[in-house]
Amino acid sequence: MSRTLVLILLAASLAACGEVESAEEAATPLSPTLASDFASEATCPAPPDAPVRIEGGSFMMGQDNIYPEEGPVHEVSVDGFWIDPHEVTNGQFAAFVAATGYVTLAEKPVDPALYGVPEDQIPEVLLQPGSAVFTPPSQPSTRFADWWQYVPGAYWKKPYGPTGPDAEASQPVVHLSYEDMQAYADWAGGRIPTEAEWEYAASAGAAPYSEQPDGESANSWQGVFPMVNEAEDGFKGVAPVGCFAPNANGLYDMVGNVWEVTSDFYRPGHDPADNTNPRGPSENSAYDPLNPTYASRVMKGGSYLCAPNYCQRYRPAARQGRDPGLGASNVGFRLAYDDVPEG
Ligand SMILES: [Ca+2]
Ligand SMILES: [Ca+2]
User: Fold this and answer.
1) pTM of the model
2) Domain residues of the chain, as ranges?
3) Ligand nearest to the CA of 305
4) Which residues contact 293 (CB under 8 A, 6 or more apart)?
5) How many whole angstroms from 253 Cα to the centroid of ligand 2?
6) CA–CA separation, 223 vs 212, rounded Å?
7) Residue 5 and residue 280: Cα distance in Å, rounded?
8) Which ligand is nearest to the CA of 262?
9) How far is the CA of 243 from the centre of ligand 2 (A)?
């Protein structure tokens, strides 16, 4: 578990105080937008819950023409497996919590030792239970610290913070740590997929692409991030699972809606020699430039925050590191299975 990113975000915010604003950043602010303005009560026809069989095979993993961490393209073979057709929902996670009494990391006070600095140097707010919530800034910005806020009281049932609306049962669960996802997987009889399994299932035999998916295919961000959210796809923020067209494997929202955490540790780029049921680097060789102190996991497919001007990660090959401890309002997961019961 790690809270390092929180301190990095805070440091970046503080450092920005003394900077001279660029002409772009000094532009007239738009009306303030609250995190909860991104909430949606829309419904969509419920997608199937039954895991989908993905037959084993080979594919070209990675992409060479967008971001350097996605290359090199290399052939990978993956054994057959099963995977959820949609992201794990709040309704599914609620059933797990009701059955087990499980308490997520974001609901627990933060151990000061996790920060690795003297306790009197840690702002009190960062020791309260909470999570990272996307909150649009009041002015244009290219600094991610300007739109991520650590919100005490934000957790899976209150995804926009304690004053925002409750989690919708049909929407993907967010604000989980890796150990929370693992606990759910153990209870549900599944496991977190590897990056290669996830990308193989997501690409479904299609060629890599660069352009933003249309509004029928994925929940991403239309407009100039982080200020102008045109929501041409119908959603400013997270959507219920299954609102967009499935891929050729019958899987929904593999691209967009929420990022999906995999079991691989993260480091930029792929090792082409790790090409048969790859599991990624060891924990000791993991490295995430955005969170260098801890071993991040790979997350895949981008989210509703991905826009052409900022984050062209609405693609199966897209990957970033995910802090194993700190949750976020645009990160979820789905399960894979080695076997599923007949019927
Ligand atoms: Ca959208
Ligand atoms: Ca997704």
Assistant:
1) 0.92
2) 4-46+56-337
3) 1
4) 2, 4, 116
5) 5
6) 11
7) 22
8) 2
9) 12
Query: Which residues lie near ion ligand 2 (Cβ < 5 Å)?
Result: 253, 257, 260, 301
What distance in Å separates the CA atoms of residue 288 and residue 112, rounded to the nearest whole number?
A: 22
Is the bond preceding 316 in cis, omega lying within 30 degrees of 0? no
The mean pLDDT value of the chain amounts to 91
Q: How close is the Cα of 241 to the center of ligand 2, in Å?
A: 9
Summarised one tens digit per residue, pLDDT across range 248-299 is 999 999 999 999 999 999 999 999 999 999 999 999 999 999 989 889 999 9
Phi, psi of 188 (to 5 degrees): -85, -5
Distance of CA 36 from the midpoint of ligand 1 (Å): 15
Nearest to 266 by CA among 242, 250, 246, 284: 284
Q: What is the C-alpha separation between 180 and 81, in angstroms, rounded?
A: 22
What is the CA(234)–ligand 1 centre distance, in A?
6
In CATH terms, the superfamily for domain 4-46+56-337 is: paralog of FGE (formylglycine-generating enzyme) (3.90.1580.10)
Higher per-residue pLDDT: 35 or 166: 166
CA atoms within 13 A on the CB side of 145: 14
Pairing assessment for the beta strands 57-61 and 319-322 based on DSSP bridges: unpaired
What is the CA(219)–ligand 2 centre distance, in A?
A: 9
Reading the block at residue 129, the tokens are 């239970």
From first CA to last CA, the distance across the chain in angstroms is 38
Contacts 24+ apart (CB under 8 A), 224-228: 224/140, 224/307, 224/309, 225/305, 225/307, 225/309, 225/310, 225/311, 226/136, 226/137, 226/140, 226/141, 226/146, 226/147, 226/305, 226/310, 227/30, 227/136, 227/137, 227/139, 227/140
